[in-house]
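1st attempt posting a full record on here, be nice pls
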Amino acid sequence: MPVKRRILSIVLLATLLAVALAGLAFSRLGNTWLSRVLIDEINPRLPGEVRLEGDAEWQLFPPAIRLSGVHWRPPAGTPGALEIDEISVRSDWSGDGARPVHVRVTGVRAALHQGADGQWRVPAPAPSGAGEPVVAWTLASVHADGIELTLHPVDRPAVSVQLADVALVAAPDGATTVGGDWQLASAADRFAGRVDGRYRVAAAGVDFAPLSVRLRGVLGGLMLSDARVDAAHLHVGDDGALAGDTLTVRARGAFAGEPVDAAATLSTLAFARGRLDALLTRVSLRRGAPETVHAQLDTATLVFDGAAADLAPLAGRLSLATPDGPVTLAFSDGTARYAVTDGRLEFTLPTLAAQLPDPAGTAQRLDVSGELAGELMTTRGTGAGRFGARAEGSRLDGRWWVVRDQARWLGAVLAVDRLDLDRWLPKSSPPAAQPAPLDAWRDLPVQLDVRVGRLRWQGVTVRDARLRLNAPADSAPR
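the predicted structure (as tokens):
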């Protein structure tokens, strides 16, 4: 018996030692084997080549796997790249249905290039032909941090997109909540913000309901300190097309150093093949002190085809608070067109109706009607156009121009059929009041050439009068 027990102990000890040695060998070589198996499974499903330059670790209970140093390179001659510092996938054995899978990704660097046809070169997985998976599973959550994506459009500078603290978590009702911080930067502009919402994978795309985006940053001369875009519903198609309804935009910031607040409501929005169509139901813009300005646009259609944006009909109201009283302007039946390529803004306002304080100093309000049209080269700071006005039997027509780089940057040539200065000048002045010296008028940054068919002043009527202020003798309409 002692001999049998001794032999049995030796066999048991040898078995335990063999198992321990096998476990140690598998722990040493299993990761290498796993790396090769994963690469052999992934590469046939993607164009280009995937390499695992880091570690591959796994465990069975509960099931989990962690990969580091994942690199993908597209086929020869195709631009693009993808690098992942670390990706981990875990699940559990809870429940009897599909196994929940949780994914965590950190340190992703990717580059996408746009082709000459306008499509982005995104690698499409090849059919696996493996049939149904052995174990049913469902994506329960994705957490990502340190994501850097560089977009290379065909005819524009590269754009950098950075994502941080991104979370996608499946909800019990079948939707997925999404949230994360983002930054976007190009050669001249820089934005940062956060996105939150819920989405469902739908036919040929993704449905967001709702979706909220907050941002701040600099776009040209516009500085956004706080802006928010909310969408009740937004569909993103597989082809990049957008369709949404009930979108609201609110922004606070500064333009050209002046503080501004803006808000807009879009009843519908559609974007496809580089064309944007939107129905604006309300747009407001407010500038604060020292002279409060409030502008509001009524319902209009906005169309942007990538080269120019058209807005029509252009209708709304403008109010300005001045020390002498409020000034209001209503306009309708207008149009506006902005060309992105050269910064040209063309506009027509055929119907204007204004109310302003009576310059004669009475408590009454003065009604003025007119029209305005022209174009501005926003990139060069120049512009020109025509305008007309009618008030109390007088008619004014003229042309205007703007040259931002000149000392006298505003100019106009006016023709008035009749002008009664006794009506327009204040009825009384303090005894010590004196006319402003001529030099004070000459210092104004304007050029004026005014012709009056019939001028009345202090009871005297003059015909074919002419007034020039900082204008050459041969000035003519431009």
